[in-house]
Amino acid sequence: MTAFRLDTLGRINRDRALRFTFDGVQYSGFEGDTIASALLASGGSVVGRSFKYHRPRGIWGVGVEEPNAFVDVSGSRSLVNARATTEPLVDGMVVRSVNASPTAANDRHAFIDRFARFIPSAFYYKTFMWPNWHAFEPRIRQMAGLGVVDPSVRSGLHADQVNESCDLLVVGGGPAGLVAALHAAEAGKSVILCDEGCEFGGSLLHRSAQIYGKAGEAWVDETVARLREFGVVLLPNTTAFGIYDHGLIALNQRNGSGGHDRLWRVRPGHTLLATGAIERPLPFANNDLPGILSAEAGLAYLRRFGVVVGRNVVVATNNGLADEVVAALSAEGVEVTTVDYRKGEQIVAARGRTRVEAVELGDGRTLNADAVLVSGGFTPTLHLYCQAKGKLRWDEGLQTFLAGDPVDRIAIAGAAAGHFDLRAVFASAGQALAAVGIASGAVPELTAAPVAYGIVAAWPKPKMKGRVWIDLQHDVTAKDVELAARENFVSVEHLKRYTTLGMAVDQGKTSNLNGLALMAELTGREIPQVGTTTYRPPFSPVPLTSLGGLRGGSLMNPPRRLALENEHRDDGAHMREYGGWLRPAWYGDEAEAVAVQREARKARETVALFDGSPLGKIEVQGPQAAAFMDFIYYNTMSTLKPGRCRYGFILSETGGVYDDGVLVRLEENRFIVSCSSSHVAGVYALLEEWRQDRFDRSQLFIHNATAESATLTVSGPYSRRLLEAMGLGVALDDESLPHMATAAGSFDGTPLRVTRVSFTGDRSYEISIRADRALPLWRTLKEKGRALDAVLIGVEALMVLRAEKGFIVIGKDSDGLTLPMDLGATAPLQKKSAEFIGRRSLFTEEAQRPDRRQLVGLEVLDGGGPLVTGAHGVERTAAGNRSLGYVTSSYFSPTLGRPIALGVIERGASRTGDVIDIQHLGNVRQARIVAPCALDPEGARLNA
Amino acid sequence: MQLFPCPFCGLRSETEFHFGGDMGNLRPDGTETDAATWSSYLFLRNNPKGRTSEVWMHLTCGEVFRLDRDTVTHVVEKSAALTVEAHQ
User: Fold this and answer.
1) In the Cβ-directed half-sphere of A54, how many Cα atoms lie within 13 Å?
2) Which end of chain A is least crowded, N or C, by CB within 10 Å?
3) How confident is the model at residue A1 (pLDDT cuts 50, 70, 90)?
4) Is the dihedral angle over the CA atoms A821, A824, A829, A834 positive or is it negative?
5) Strand pairing report for A791-792 and A608-611
């Protein structure tokens, strides 16, 4: 055995040795060790360098309260800033100290500590300013931070998230939590019990007790087995880190085998906090030396890991809980000397260079020691209570904050409620359950001498000699607190932020109370008058992967997929996301620009096939449907005949064109609103809102059928021929089915709808059929289209075709402020008498201005390529250049053999023929303002 | 995460809902409404500290309804469908 590891004691498995390295040196431990316990067993003392001053630091605690021992791990696990006290040791771990180079023992930045007096708290508010603080930034960034992320590590997995509810959530699996969980389970309640440690038991794992005549540990094992039989959900390695609105509690369950943690969102009927208490350090000069540990931790290292922290140990305490520590160490042959604050003794300074060697007492004595265990009292862990807006109250007898008035549905038991004697702990569990209406069973029989806590105050005082450390992780001393007081940062929230006390990863678990006690003394206040800072989640660090869950990568905003996607891919489609849907952008092996031009040209020569399924199809029906449509649309729709379609705008209440699309009237009381594919959810919500808030919902019904139907577009001179060859049971002559009309038909027994509507400007039909029956229809279209030299076109080619006709795309040729009049639609404004969405906004001063930007076409004059989208129309005045608007869509037209463009230009509608400058990144070209429609303005191709 | 009571579905997570403005912000119809009134209807919200009545939409089922709650304590008082009674 090593000097520090005993042959006996501990819950480790001495039959299984584990090897690891720390800062390049080979060490060994046992199964069941944490990295910290293995390092302590090896006699290692310096495990890292402090954040600011690079002082040598050792292990302080045994759990999540640890401020010093953070390490980077590679080898069998990859971890950054792992907390050595809670990280289980795994064979083959390569452990490195953080914030130290090359090693913690020999750090090249250790010299910084000699300049400490020039870099107290908040020094950065007063320095690094001249000549320019950016000059210092890279170096400071390099020195800040602790561990180093290994960019080669990619996990690729997404964390689970679980939603759960229960009658009782018990946070903390020590004696109070175990008893409470057991009683609740016996009373028939559904229970979740979580503990942040790797096993249940809490203080019973290191403090001796005789329960029902058995060792405390045995009672723990039995109780856990009984809880399992009752079906209690047992969650070790799980931290309840936050409590949120309406009683939601979030838990992070650690994954022991290197995979992602799991998030639990729990809605318990009641919560019992059995979260224990955290020991405070004692204030004296150089109290940050390696080898100075929490007394409770010293006891835990002995009893849980068989490790003694030293051979010649001083135990300094201001309370009775350290008595067992003294007895336990002495029983193992350790030389123990007590410094008892209750008897007026105190430590004023620790001596040593990289490890404690002696302590100086207030009475002048010096005691040699190779380790010092300190107990400054215990602070109940009440974070969740405080997050739930509970107010703490000061307890003079216990010299700490306890929970004040109860918070609805939260009970507190055990050390968290200020009970440090085991009998009182068990009793408090029963009382807490009763307070939330759960019957409790009998308190377990104990054989144990009662513990007298009897704490005497040992807070840091003003003007203590030497450097007295308050916050180890952020290197904050008592002098820094005095500095804050001197500079009038006396509110506890200012104290925190000015000194950074309590702001590190440990969130002040071992430092907050000492800090505010000193501030109280400095400002002549009582501790409760200073108060505590606001408690916020998380209680301890939670990986971002837990919070992200499955929302990452392709699942972040999963695109919607076409029923025919595989078919398109087989046909060589290049897929791209449009308005949240994955759609063919173009087909084939050519470069995009070449393919798009080929598709757009061919579409006007023969017949184009296009998958338009994302097009919105929202059914509106009922006796009030026609009146509803008149209110929803800018245009008058009630005059639309059954079997006909009309293009219209839906405005927002501010008058802007929210969406455009064709309205189909199937019958007197049945309409189909087709809307832009990217706006379907918005339009549907808009329709529902007005249906319920203005109309009679029993006379009007809305159904979003968009995803149920595929919509296949057949467009071009041969489009009617192709449909005739399909045998759809629809009369296709132009008298029966004129442009902007709809008819019912079928394909292979499946009903479908054929609507003659055109986004290309050519004769065009949209076939809507059940999405799961679309494939045979599509395949037949392709098969019969072959004889007509049909072409598959993607979205990019369609964009060129519609631009040739001056058809706008909402959001591209318009924005949220574009009014229907800007797009040339003025009739409804003048003639429609029915009320409609946005109507009043069209009569504002702003809407009626004559110099508004209006939709125009732009003709290139210099024989060059297409204008750049976004290029501005520029007017040059004596006062400077002014933008008249900009290019919104711009393409090369294969049919016209020249560039075409759409744009919005000031007074554009009345400036047809004018030549204006178009400027982009300093490059100026000329363009003529023309009508938006560049091809076939009479619309003859619609019936060709 | 708060829980809101959809009149149709019952208690659901707040992430399923969409805020629809103050209850009682009645739409002034017609083209004669003065600009200040129309602007107030469009843009002004009360944002009270404490009890409030709001319109919310449950996106899952499409129900648009009235929700009475406290903006400080987050206590939810009740919800009601947008019938004539709810507007009172």
Assistant:
1) 19
2) N
3) very low
4) negative
5) parallel
Task: Indicate yes or no: CB of A841 within 8 angstroms of CB of B38.
Answer: yes
What is the C-alpha to C-alpha distance for residues A70 and A56, in angstroms, rounded to an integer?
13
Between A390-394, A569-573, A704-708, the lowest mean confidence (pLDDT) is in A704-708
* CB of A246 less than 8 A from some CB of B: yes
pLDDT of residue A101: 84
**Interface contact flag, A685 B59, Cβ < 8 Å:** yes
Residue A150's identity, in one-letter code, is D
Determine the angle formed by the axes of helices A216-229 and A175-186, rounding to 10 degrees: 30
By the 8 A CB rule, do A30 and A306 touch?
Answer: no
Average pLDDT for A77-92: 92
State the pTM of this model.
Answer: 0.87
Q: How far is A290 from chain B (nearest CA, A)?
A: 43
Report the alpha-carbon distance of residue A537 to residue A428 in Å, rounded: 26
Indicate the residue of A245, A693, A845 with minimum beta-carbon distance to B1.
Answer: A245
For A716, the token pair is 């071009």
Q: Which amino acid is at A339?
A: V
Query: What is the C-alpha radius of gyration for chain A, rounded to an integer number of angstroms?
Result: 38
The per-residue pLDDT for range A476-525, each reduced to its tens digit, is 999 999 999 999 999 999 999 999 999 999 999 999 999 999 999 999 99
Q: Please state whether beta strands A277-279 and A378-380 pair in parallel, antiparallel, or not at all (unpaired).
A: antiparallel
> Which positions in chain A touch B38 (Cβ < 8 Å)?
840-841, 844
Distance CA B28, CA B45 (A): 16
The residue type at A487: E
Using CA atoms of A127, A129, A134, A139 in order, give the dihedral in degrees to the nearest 10.
-20
Question: What ipTM was estimated for this complex?
Answer: 0.95
Q: Do A692 and B29 touch (CB under 8 A)?
A: no
Q: Give the DSSP H or E segment for A137.
A: helix A137-143
Residue A394: what residue type?
W
Whether residue B42 and residue A654 make contact (CB cut-off 8 A), yes or no, is yes
> Which residue carries 């470069």 as its tokens?
A591
Non-local (6+) Cβ contacts of A151 within 8 A are: none
Average pLDDT, chain A: 94
Whether residue B38 lies within 8 A of chain A, CB to CB, comes out as yes
pLDDT tens-digit readout, A30-45: 999 999 999 999 988 8
Interchain pair A692, B63: CB under 8 A: yes
CA pair distance A726, A919, nearest whole angstrom:
50
What pLDDT is stored for residue B87 in this prediction? 53
Would you say A887 and A858 are in contact if contact means Cβ atoms under 8 Å apart?
yes
CB pairs under 8 A between A and B: 50
The verdict on B33 touching A (C-beta cutoff 8 Å) is yes
> Per DSSP, what are the bridge partners of residue A893?
A898
For A:826-865, CB contacts with B below 8 A are 835, 839-841, 843-845
> In this complex, is the C-beta atom of B82 within 8 Å of any C-beta atom belonging to chain A?
yes
Report the 10 Å Cβ neighbour count for A375: 28
Type of residue numbered A760: T
- Contact between chains at A689 and B57 (C-beta distance less than 8 A): yes
For β-strands A392-395 and A378-380, DSSP reports them as unpaired
Under DSSP, the state recorded for A537 is: S
Instruction: Confirm if A182 and A441 have CB atoms less than 8 A apart.
Output: yes
Which of residues 666 through 685 in chain A touch B, CB cutoff 8 A?
Answer: 684-685
Q: pLDDT, tens digit, for every residue of A367-399?
A: 999 999 999 999 999 999 999 999 999 999 999
The token duo for A162 is 């679980």
**Whether A654 contacts chain B with CB within 8 A:** yes
**Token representation of residue A67:** 């401020």
Residue from B64, B66, B72, B74 whose CB has the most chain A CBs within 10 Å, to mutate: B64
The answer to whether residue A157 scores a pLDDT higher than 80 is: no
